Amino acid sequence: MSDFLRPITNAMRSQFLTTRAAARHMTARGAGVVLAFGGGPVDSTHPALLLRTATLSDVGATAAFAASDKARTITSTDIDISCGAIVN
User: Fold this and answer.
1) Model-level pTM greater than 0.85?
2) Is 39 in contact with 11 (CB distance < 8 Å)?
3) d(CA 29, CA 60)
4) Which among 14, 78, 83, 3 has a CA at the least distance from the CA of 48?
5) pLDDT higher than threshold 80 for residue 30
6) Are residues 54 and 83 in contact, defined by beta-carbon separation less than 8 angstroms?
7) How many angstroms separate the CA atoms of 81 and 86, rounded?
8) In the Cβ-directed half-sphere of 83, how many Cα atoms lie within 13 Å?
9) Which helix (H) or strand (E) is 18 found in, with range?
């Protein structure tokens, strides 16, 4: 069981410590955004619906949007940029 829990515990601890450190700066500024990137399983028998994969530019543009004032009404959500490889 400990082998199973170790990567989960490490990921959650890293996320918590990073967010806590960022929150100190965000509190002082009166604003801020925390972005967390992750992945999920991809069904290799089901190709991406857009027939391509996301580029680093795609990821950067999505992150810039999510952290911008244009996304100020978006809270606690996932933005799927898998090009359709992960179907929700």
Assistant:
1) no
2) no
3) 23
4) 83
5) yes
6) yes
7) 9
8) 12
9) helix 2-29
- CA distances from residue 55 to 20, 27, 46, 59 in whole angstroms, order as listed: 30, 33, 19, 6
Task: Match 């898998």 to its residue by tokens.
Answer: 82
Span 39-87, pLDDT tens digits: 666 566 666 678 888 888 998 999 999 989 999 898 888 888 888 877 7
Exposed / middle / buried, residue 85 (Cβ in 10 Å: 0-12, 13-18, 19+): buried
* Terminal Cα distance for the chain, rounded: 29
The encoded tokens of residue 71 equal 């996304």
Neighbours of 43 (CB within 10 A): 9
Which two structure tokens, joined as six digits, stand for 82? Answer: 């898998």
What's the confidence (pLDDT) of residue 27?
A: 93
